[in-house]
Amino acid sequence: MTIAVTGATGHLGRLVVEALLDKGTPAADIVAVVRTPAKAADLADRGVEVRQADYSDRAALETAFAGVDKLLLVSGSEVGQRVAQHANVIDAAKAAAVGFVAYTSVLDAQNSTIGLAVEHRATEDRLAQSGIDFALLRNGWYWENYLGSIPAAGETGALFGSAGTGVVAAAARKDYAEAAAAVLLSDGQASKVYELGGDERLTYSELADVISSVIGKPVSYKDLPQAEYAAALEGAGLPAPIASMLADSDAGVAIGALDTESGDLQRLIGRNSTPAATALAVSTS
Fold it and tell me: CB–CB of 58/97 below 8 Å?
């Protein structure tokens, strides 16, 4: 059985390849689909087959998927272009007779009100219409998403956001990667939908306490109105669309859009999710 992983040099995709290898999958049975093969030289050295393709290149994708039995479609990073890009991947997979696709979506994609869910929802719909067997890995937030906030928190003593008293059931990227590998290596996954989130469900005030413990400095949470938080992020140098997306996601936290108690992640990986303090401790290493 040949398993392909798209975006295999990205943060999540690389971890999925590592998880497949750790679970005993022969390297020769793994295809790493990447935009820049040179960045996957270490994977090639381990025997993983590296194939070049970009989400925008339908023909290259079809060639990359030749002989693939199962595919992990890791959602693209170019927000605003992902519907068309993901459609290319799905259409190429169908043309290459890929038997199964797992897709990294977002929590409760079909009902979520956060802006990020729009492209995920469209991709889920495209998969449902494709005729390919598929599973949905609806990933929650990554604890690593907060790593960029730690330097400023250390300097100002504050974690800024617009999440109110909502909770986020985040987990480490490695947790989600292990879950994806478990699905890819299991039979009977067609039509399965997994709502994936950590068992540590924190408010931002609690997250500020975690950051404080990690950096050894007092940190408190400063809640801002959504528009004010977006402006602050933009003022800190983030592009306006990214600042708006992050502030919108925080507002989603406030209403429970990034929370789940499904237990799906824990069942797939066979353990508790990685604590926030562990995931964020890399900021001090």
Answer: no
